[in-house]
């Protein structure tokens, strides 16, 4: 989950880096470091969470798109923080506190998977249901829309699955 937490804050860190470019060099470099760490963490998540050969082919019985959560993420989290004008140290402390609260809630509610970098890479999220999935449902990360009645090849066996043909 720490990889996803870093990945989730990458866009806001990049926004702060752009904001502080040439006006606050320490702030710029800290923000750029966090943004790069976030992007690297995204790739780490994919390679660590979904090892090759850990495949299954569940028959999907119900699909629910989770795209609305991505819009809520942008509207409620990124935009207000990105719009800070000339942030003072106090503003940065408040922003860090807000990011911490957001991440805590996101981790506890599984919204940590609503990840802006996934969407920028062309991935989407769905909640899929199948009797072949432990617990009856999982979050599917993929590039192709799944359909009820369709068998899909996925990597992963638990509550988070990656569409195998979505890797390319």
Order of helices and strands: HHEEHHHEEEE
Shape: elongated
Determine the mean pLDDT: 83
Distance between the termini: 24 Å
Category by helix and strand content: alpha+beta
**Residue share in β-strands:** 5-15%
What is the rounded Rg? Answer: 18 Å
The share of residues in helices is 40-55%
Main sheet specs:
6 strands, mixed
| Oligomer status | single chain
How many separate domains? Answer: 1
Low-confidence stretches: none
Please provide the count of β strands: 6
Instruction: Tell me the strand order in the biggest sheet.
Output: 1-5-6-4-3-2
Helix run count: 5
Notable characteristics:
168 residues; six-stranded mixed sheet; elongated; alpha+beta; 6 strands
List the helices and strands and how they pair.
Elements: H1 2-20, H2 25-49, E1 55-56, E2 62-65, H3 67-82, H4 89-108, H5 116-120, E3 124-129, E4 137-142, E5 154-155, E6 160-163
Parallel strand pairs: 4-6
Antiparallel strand pairs: 1-5, 2-3, 3-4, 5-6
